[in-house]
Amino acid sequence: MRIGVLTGGGDCPGLNAVLRAIVRKGERVFGDEIIGFLDAWEGVQHRRTIPLSVESMRGTLPKGGTVLGTTRGSPLDSPDGVRDMKATMSDMGLDALIVVGGNGSLTVAEILAREHGLPIVGVPKTIDNDIVGTDLTFGFNTAVQIATDAIDRLHTTAESHDRVMVVEVMGRHSGWIATHAGIAGGASVVLIPERPFDIDEVCGRLIRRHGRGRFASIVVVAEGAKPLDGTIDLPEQTTDRFGHLQLGGIGSVVAAEIGQRTGFETRPVLLGHVQRGGTPTAFDRVLSTRFGVAAVDAVHEHRWGSMVALRGTEIVAVPLHEAAGRTRPVDLSLFTDVAEIFFA
Ligand code: F6P
After folding, report:
1. Residue 129 included in any domain
2. CATH number of 270's domain
3. Is the CB of 125 under 6 A from ligand 1?
4. Is residue 308 located within the same domain as residue 263?
5. Alpha helices, DSSP H only, in 263-322?
6. What is the per-residue pLDDT for 209?
7. Per-residue model confidence as pLDDT tens digits over 308-317
8. Mutation test residue for ligand 1: of 7, 66, 128, 245, the one with most atoms within 8 Å of CB
9. Strands 33-37 and 2-7
10. What residue numbers bound the domain in which 224 lies?
11. How confident is the model at residue 131 (pLDDT cuts 50, 70, 90)?
12. What mean pLDDT is reported for the chain?
């Protein structure tokens, strides 16, 4: 078969490992030819490609980012987008397209498969771990490890100065990274989008903690965390050229409020894109590799409109419509029954 592949949306560690696995399984097991589209959907629409082979993917397993490049935006944003997609697929003689993407790209993939009959198989990726239908996405484990390493370091400086360190992590719609890194890093407070927070309650917790002689604290804030209505004002948010809301900055606001309300010395730390960069953990390399191999199997089984997913310990193919247009909230029992036990 001739199989196209693209990586869409924000990058995440493990993308190259997926591509390498697709190529390895496709080329060596089925004799497929794999065509890589550059810069996500734009590459398909404008036929910007590179051939991917076992040889060209050599050495990429531990590399962060994506050799294909990526961008936001989709063919559904332009009037000729779908027509361009179909023309590329037929003119290039492609039998299938593998879309490695997050919520946005997989929603587009579902529409293209269901409404326009394109032979698409999805692979879920995002550090945010918020895709419905899979127990985990690759990139998440790496992001949690990076955030945990940072928190470990922040503990020692916080203790030296008796400070409250407010660490902002990614997590646009869901608090997966914040909750896991908060548990792993021993945070005193974790604020997530799923549970609007009361800043007075947060300060109360920290004051009680100080009262017990614990003068240094770590507060983890997901970038999408929300204060209770009417409590504190967040800065105006801007959108990028694709209309994607640019988050980031809530950690500074929370740190300033804590400082003002408690009198404790407080510092904000914004981890930002550091969480998406660099080499994937061994766990993410294995998950990415399993996803890539399974995606090629799904293509050969003509499972159009599906995505590969982790369910328990198994890799399965699930309908893309399970994931499309939705986000997966953090497991609240993990938050309330585990993370909160360690809060100040
Ligand atoms: O890919 C998801 C994500 O990492 C979000 O957590 C974050 O809000 C967003 O991407 C940042 O996107 P960009 O790279 O466009 O700034």
Report:
1. yes
2. 3.40.50.460
3. no
4. no
5. 282-300
6. 97
7. 999 999 999 9
8. 128
9. parallel
10. 141-277
11. very high
12. 97
